[in-house]
């Protein structure tokens, strides 16, 4: 550790700052449906998610190795390049959090890293095969697989629960939803915390602090787990609102099906070393669960904004990372300018967010329109049946009369 320079320390701190934003940006992945259905109170839900994120960080290092060894050529990377990549990822996380869009923190990080690497060492320093097989293909396939699985699981849940007692079934599904939410939190820590471990390990290799091809040191695993757990506990309430009530209205059966499907997909991808976006997976499963219930609808206006954000994440973060790398390449003063820009921009975004505060008190409130389908269903729903009476009374009140006014009735 004698080679632990100032720039390396800055990179590690910035990486943990990204991990913190990843935590509150992705809290919705595990707990949005649990909060929206009332299975857990908001503060209890985020505390549980934070603890399990920390535990999950210690379960595997396969995804961390994908980031540190597989995506870019680690021998040609300087610590300044990684710092520039983190700037792009953090700013994209904060912008999408401000507008309440559940975009991918994972793709923001990888986009920033790819852009900064290309600006520094050219396209040859990016491993295209790893990018396609372990990043792009899972990004397309995972939400589709999770969505179809959640749709089928939702229909199966309602089919099996037709003859069950309503209150007992709802109670059972709420318990199952809490368990599945915990599994998603564990999976999120296993997958997403490792990305920061990988980026810090890559910086340590670039700075000569550890040998090439090294696994993340224990202190890196612990610090990354703590950072993402703290961010998760604070709760990204804006994105929780979008995921929990802005996409569709969920019942406990749907929440259980969505989270179970998502957790299965995330844990399987972590085992295989795929740098999967948990946001994509959970969003796909929530939409699948919404479509799986008879009469359920998805608010496609919100979904469309999410899809656009997903498509922009990699190129937007890559562009910011490349620009930041161009400035840091000018020397120490350039790195200082980029750091000042990051701090100033982050503070400005936070100040903007205070204009409309979203927290655990109003997280389930939404003014998102229900959509054409829901409106049409409501329009044709018959009024509730009531007792028929023989006495019919007029429903149009007689006009009010002023006792002091002169009478206009004709004289008899």
Automatic annotation (TrEMBL):
Family assignment?
A: Belongs to the inorganic phosphate transporter (PiT) (TC 2.A.20) family.
Q: InterPro entries attached here? A: Phos_transporter (IPR001204)
Q: What subcellular locations does the record give?
A: Membrane
Residue ranges spanning the membrane: these are: 6-24, 44-61, 81-101, 108-126, 132-153, 218-240, 307-324, 330-350
Report the membrane topology from the UniProt record: Multi-pass membrane protein
Q: Which domain of life is it from?
A: Bacteria
Where this protein primarily resides, as one coarse class?
Answer: membrane
Native species of this protein? Answer: Streptomyces pseudovenezuelae
Asked if the Swiss-Prot or TrEMBL record annotates the protein with the keyword tRNA-binding, the reply is no
Q: Under which name does UniProt file this protein?
A: Phosphate transporter
